[in-house]
Design brief:
mainly alpha, 6 helices, about 70% helix, elongated, RNA-binding, Nuclear nucleic acid-binding protein C1D
């Protein structure tokens, strides 16, 4: 970047930001080429339904985010465009998938085992009569 010629069409102060933006666009382009090299059906066949949902949601969110940026570059306020509601809708579904994923990761409670642990861990006092009855039985033998 240091050897690049600075264009006089924009202020020098934003050159670094524009260079970073150009690099980011290049990274997105490479990622898209990678994703497009594998057919969607091939990719989805290898995944379980939850993973398929994640791929679809990330793809939709990415596409709508890129459209958001496009609108901003065209001078349209994306906050007043229906794309904002679409991004919010996708975000809601992403949160639902995250909840499902978290529920799968959470440990399951074995109620029977838990009750046995608690029952055995609690101290139970012996009845007063039990010691006398045991002692009487020993004396008779």
């Amino acid at each position: 970047m240091a050897g690049e010629e600075i264009n006089e069409d924009y202020p020098v102060e934003i050159h670094e930001y524009l260079s970073a933006f150009e690099n980011s666009i290049g990274a997105v382009d490479e990622m898209l080429k990678t994703m497009m090299s594998v057919s969607r059906n091939e990719l989805l066949q290898k995944l379980d339904p939850l993973e398929q949902a994640k791929v679809d949601l990330v793809s939709a969110y990415t596409l709508n985010s890129m459209f958001w940026v496009y609108l901003a570059t065209q001078g349209v306020n994306p906050k007043e465009h229906p794309v904002k509601q679409e991004l919010e809708r996708i975000r809601v579904y992403m949160n639902r998938v995250k909840e499902i994923t978290d529920k799968k990761k959470a440990g399951k409670l074995d109620r029977g085992a838990a009750s046995r642990f608690v029952k055995n861990a609690l101290w139970e006092p012996k009845p007063k009569n039990a010691s006398r009855v045991a002692n009487k039985g020993k004396n008779k033998n």
